[in-house]
From TrEMBL:
<keyword id="KW-0317">Glutathione biosynthesis</keyword>
<dbReference type="InterPro" id="IPR014042">
    <property type="entry name" value="Glutathione_synthase_a-hlx"/>
</dbReference>
<feature type="binding site">
    <location>
        <position position="354"/>
    </location>
    <ligand>
        <name>ATP</name>
    </ligand>
</feature>
<comment type="pathway">
    <text>Sulfur metabolism; glutathione biosynthesis; glutathione from L-cysteine and L-glutamate: step 2/2.</text>
</comment>
<dbReference type="GO" id="GO:0005829">
    <property type="term" value="C:cytosol"/>
</dbReference>
<dbReference type="Pfam" id="PF03917">
    <property type="entry name" value="GSH_synth_ATP"/>
</dbReference>
<dbReference type="InterPro" id="IPR005615">
    <property type="entry name" value="Glutathione_synthase"/>
</dbReference>
<feature type="binding site">
    <location>
        <position position="264"/>
    </location>
    <ligand>
        <name>substrate</name>
    </ligand>
</feature>
<feature type="domain" description="Glutathione synthase substrate-binding">
    <location>
        <begin position="254"/>
        <end position="351"/>
    </location>
</feature>
<dbReference type="InterPro" id="IPR014709">
    <property type="entry name" value="Glutathione_synthase_C_euk"/>
</dbReference>
<feature type="binding site">
    <location>
        <begin position="414"/>
        <end position="423"/>
    </location>
    <ligand>
        <name>ATP</name>
    </ligand>
</feature>
<keyword id="KW-0460">Magnesium</keyword>
<comment type="similarity">
    <text>Belongs to the eukaryotic GSH synthase family.</text>
</comment>
<dbReference type="InterPro" id="IPR004887">
    <property type="entry name" value="GSH_synth_subst-bd"/>
</dbReference>
<dbReference type="InterPro" id="IPR016185">
    <property type="entry name" value="PreATP-grasp_dom_sf"/>
</dbReference>
<dbReference type="InterPro" id="IPR037013">
    <property type="entry name" value="GSH-S_sub-bd_sf"/>
</dbReference>
<dbReference type="GO" id="GO:0005524">
    <property type="term" value="F:ATP binding"/>
</dbReference>
Length: 535
């Protein structure tokens, strides 16, 4: 059945949901329509496609939805529109609302986890034996804890990722993939939402009305994360202190996926509107190591001799290869020992791994942190997939590993590190499980494979024509949180979304590794979706 659905989607066939049929009137003909195919129905011919493609590129340039060109890294005056979808992808409205509904709970959940030192130590007790990188992070956390935490505040910028899941044509569900700290997409999320809003307006202009296939669709509001950074800077309490944004200028061809300058521009605007003058510095991790130092008398984090740091926001520094020498490690340690607000700090980094995600799926674990939120616990737990530790050699784990080796198509093997490419599928998954020792397995988790619904959209990559593909979507919902180290919540917001879209036959969907493109959501009632399963 699933192969038939994919084949017929590729051939342009439309479906009607048995429970909800939409009648679309075009040239006095009645055409059955579903949300999965709305893009094909509104882009009826090559002339419309050409006009929309040119319009999207022109408008993207006009709003700054551009990034540096990978072929000309040294020249910041040369830019291109990033890989994107021509129109927003259809996404079930009810599931989008659920993802945004649980985000504030997720924000506070991970805040509470980051404050639970004993939980984090126990969580990584076996992992540190197999993963030296995680071991070093845990040792840093221990050192800072023993010395006494000087940061008074916790700032979290978080993105929770989800996909739709539909097993054998049953009800469409929302399933969590992972939770990220210091996430990508924060700069471009509001830009792609703005572009797609304009593109929907252009579609309406071309048709002279809202096409019937979009009659019940809605665009979610675009939001920005800079307000949380401003609030963190304010509570630090030093009007002359600076904010440092840590990035890597060599993340091509996808540095435009981060685009921290948009965060910088918005943060400066918010500060000015509030009557403040805020100095923001963008630095690589290597530059931080060279220019930052710790004032041992009051533990202020300094840049040069006279710039005190209030906030460090990092979208780089979460992988071993980001630390090319001991200088970067020492710099990270200085940050953690300082009074500056580091986002994510070492505890938040260790809270946001797949290991903690796996532990949270265990019975009773959410209750440990959210005992006062029974309704939210149930809502959040319903988004979890099957996810298991591979530590130990008990009978359950042995049976699980055996089943994964025999039926690898039902699982994903994931490294604990958040590197975007540490996911293994099919034959590679089986091969790795057959060759890994029990100790080596502790650096991985096994997750149930999600079966997302397939939709259609045009993918537009730089210097290539827009191409119609059958795709699957990964929804990322942003959340920002500010609290104190003694448990007081100061700021808890849900801050918009973006979507990573990839071809339905690609396992890897990361934008950084080239298979995914930047997207946003157009919300349709769930009843309008064909419940096809994409491999």
């Amino acid at each position: 059945m699933e192969n038939l659905i994919i084949s017929e989607l590729q051939n342009g066939k439309t479906y009607s949901n048995n429970n909800h049929v939409i009648n679309k009137h075009v040239n006095n003909h009645c055409i059955k329509s579903i949300a999965n195919n709305y893009v094909v129905e509104v882009i009826e011919n090559e002339d419309i496609l050409k006009e929309l493609t040119e319009y999207s590129i022109n408008y993207a340039h006009s709003i700054g939805f551009v990034g540096l060109w990978s072929e000309q890294k040294k020249f910041i005056d040369i830019s291109v529109v990033p890989p994107m979808t021509l129109l927003p992808s259809p996404f079930p409205m009810e599931l989008f609302q659920k993802a945004t509904s649980v985000q504030s709970t997720l924000n506070e959940l991970y805040y509470r986890i980051s404050l639970d030192y004993d939980f984090l130590i126990e969580a990584y007790r076996e992992v540190v034996k197999a993963d030296k990188w995680v071991g070093r992070q845990v040792e840093m956390m221990k050192l800072v804890h023993a010395e006494g935490i000087r940061q008074k505040f916790v700032l979290q910028v978080q993105r929770a990722d989800y996909m739709t899941h539909c097993e054998d044509g049953q009800k469409i569900e929302l399933k969590q993939i992972e939770v990220n700290f210091g996430p990508g997409g924060v700069g471009f999320a509001p830009k792609v939402a703005k572009l797609h809003k304009k593109m929907i307006e252009k579609v309406e202009n071309l048709h002279g009305c809202t096409p019937n296939s979009m009659s019940e669709a809605a665009l979610p509001k675009a939001k920005k994360i800079a307000e949380a950074l401003f609030q963190a800077w304010k509570v630090f309490g030093d009007a002359k202190a600076i904010v440092v944004l840590v990035f890597d200028s060599n993340l091509y061809p996808i540095q435009h996926h981060e685009q921290l300058q948009f965060v910088q521009f918005e943060l400066e605007k918010i500060a000015r509107n509030a009557g403040s003058i805020l100095n923001i510095s963008k630095m690589t991790l290597e530059e931080c190591a060279e220019r930052m130092h710790l004032n041992e008398s009051d533990y202020s984090l300094m840049v040069g001799e006279n710039k005190r740091v209030a906030v460090v926001y990092m979208v780089y520094g979460y992988l071993p290869e980001h630390y090319t020498s001991e200088k970067e490690w020492n710099c990270q340690l200085n940050m953690e020992r300082s009074t500056a607000i580091i986002s994510p700090n070492i505890r938040s980094q260790l809270s946001g791994t797949k290991k903690v995600q796996q532990l949270l799926a265990k019975p009773g674990m959410l209750e440990r942190f959210l005992a006062d939120r029974p309704k939210k616990i149930a809502e959040l737990r319903s988004t979890f997939t099957g996810i298991w530790s591979l530590e130990g050699n008990d009978s359950f784990t042995q049976a699980l590993v055996t089943d994964a080796i025999n039926s690898p198509q039902n699982y994903v093997l994931k490294a604990l590190r958040d590197d975007g490419v540490g996911n293994f599928f099919d034959e590679k998954l089986a091969e790795m499980l057959q060759t890994m020792s029990v100790q080596d397995r502790s650096a991985f988790i096994l997750q149930q494979k999600i079966r997302p619904i397939a939709v259609k959209n045009y993918l537009k990559r730089p210097f290539h024509p827009a191409k119609l593909e059958v795709v699957t979507n990964e929804l990322g919902v942003f959340g920002t949180f500010l609290g104190t180290y003694d448990g007081k919540v100061l700021f808890n917001h849900v801050d918009g979304h973006f979507i990573k879209t990839k071809s339905h036959n690609s396992n890897q969907g990361g934008i950084c590794e080239g298979s995914g493109v930047i997207d946003s959501a157009l919300l349709f009632p769930e009843a309008q979706f064909q419940k096809g399963i994409a491999k």
